[in-house]
Amino acid sequence: MSAPAKPRTSVVTCPNCGRRNRVPAAAAGVPKCGNCHNLLPWIADAGDDDFAEVAERSPVPVVVDLWATWCGPCRMVSPALEQLATERAGDIKLVKVEIDAAPRLAQRFEVRAVPTLLVMRDGEVVARQAGAAPVPALRNWLDQALKPNQDGTS
């Protein structure tokens, strides 16, 4: 009998104190620094097999970056998305999906151009954008996507 798969983690440097922290790809709460206890940016990779656990069951809204290794604009937008994840630590999670390694997700989300960016809340896509954009445009897009509904719900 094989051992159960070990949950994936990434190492994130705390923007407040500089301490390196292991951050799980999926968790019930949001990551905090083990040293200073400030919120950490939550950036995780996901693929066909773990997307539901990592992105759809996230306790916070998720920005999904559907990208490809051969895509120049994808490499340009990645630091902008990481900046937003750092600015919004505790409020959003950035999930990166390399579409050539996750063909079922690329098909499911009908990716026609990369990068394709999604905002998901409670497992549902609430916003979509194709193509790279600078940080201010991405920040505005994210603000609009996460704006509470007219009835006061998020």
TrEMBL record:
Classification via InterPro entries: Thioredoxin, Thioredoxin-like_sf, Thioredoxin_CS, Thioredoxin_domain
Keyword NADP set for record: no
Keywords, alphabetical: Disulfide bond, Electron transport, Redox-active center, Transport
Residue ranges constituting the Thioredoxin domain according to the UniProt record: 40-147
SUPFAM superfamilies: Thioredoxin-like
Top-level taxon of origin: Bacteria
Family: Belongs to the thioredoxin family.
Protein name (Swiss-Prot/TrEMBL): Thioredoxin
Species of provenance: Pseudonocardia aurantiaca
